[in-house]
Structures are given as structure tokens and as C-alpha cells.
């Protein structure tokens, strides 16, 4: 595990615990010598995780669409910043560069990015771990929804282990580093 893509909000959230968790995750990634792949912003949780990894001697690689450079205020102190044309290119590059994925609390963009890589894992496009950092029980309702989708027959129960969830950044990174992929054929 050399590079992890982190999907998270360009907002701070109302509770300071979200920014604290962003900094803690960035610090832990730097300690583990794991490079950050993220959306390239210097604001909100995105900026906090990038700042923390850089301050602790790690590497932060941003991928930002040209249109969002002004809106999200691109981070100027990154190891690398890739400017792409579209959100599709951003997601594709992040997925290609990363060895695994973490979603921190965020909005609809965070969920969309994470669900796309989870879907790709389900249909066999990759065998990289897909995880949720469950800060302040943010993703507990989402996991309940996923279990409901299984109960209703729209998701195979065998896909449930594809979702790795922890409340603590160190525990989550440890689980990602020890992840053993298991492919499940979707249409059996």
C-alpha cells in the first residue's frame, strides 16, 4: 500500500472532529509512508488532510479539474498537482494512481466518488480496498442502507466485506494494508 485516495469534503463540517480526523489521517499516512491522492483543494477537510501529510514529511498528490481550481482554491504546496479537464478525468486518475480508497465525511461528491470505486470493485474492474473512516458515526446510516440493499436483493451479501469501516485512522490504515481481495462474480 503505497498510495491511498481519500475522498472528503471541501467543507469543514459543523463539528471540529471532522477537521481533527482529517489531520489525524494525514499524519498517520505520513508516518506509514503512504502517499495521499486527493482532490487538490486547500480548503475544508481536503486542505486539512493535505496540510497534515505535508507537515509530517509525507507526499500529497492533488487531482483537480481546471473549472474547480478557482472554486475549491487549489492547494499550492503539494508534491504534485494534476489539472484535468473534467470530473470524470479526475476520478479516473485518482483511481489509477491509488492502491486503495478511503471516504471521510463529505457531501454528495464524496459519496459519488466512493460509490463509483466500490461499484468498480463489485464488477471486477479492480481489487483495491474501499473503506469508510466513520468519524462521529457519520457513515453508520450508510452502512445500514447497504445492509438494507442486501436484504432486499439488490446487492449480494458477498459484497458486504468489500466495505471496510473503522472509526480510528490507524486501525483503518492497518486494515487496508492487510486487505486480501476476494472477487465475487456479480451475475451468478
Please write the string of helix (H) and strand (E) elements: EHEHEHEHEHEHEH
User: What is the gyration radius calculated from CA atoms?
Assistant: 16 Å
Give the spatial strand order of the biggest sheet: 4-3-2-1-5-6-7
Helix content: 40-55%
- End-to-end Cα distance: 31 Å
Q: What's the count of strands?
A: 7
Could you tell me the mean pLDDT? 93
Written overview of the protein:
A 7-stranded parallel sheet has the order 4-3-2-1-5-6-7, sandwiched between helices. The chain has helices at residues 17-31, 44-55, 68-71, 87-97, 108-122, 140-151, 169-177, and strands at 3-7, 35-38, 60-65, 80-84, 100-103, 130-133, 163-166. β1 (3-7), α1 (17-31) and β2 (35-38) form a beta-alpha-beta unit. The longest helix is centred in the N-terminal third of the chain and has 15 residues, at 17-31. The protein contains 7 helices and 7 strands; from the N terminus they run βαβαβαβαβαβαβα. With 188 residues, the chain is an alpha/beta fold. The model has no long low-confidence stretch (mean pLDDT 93).
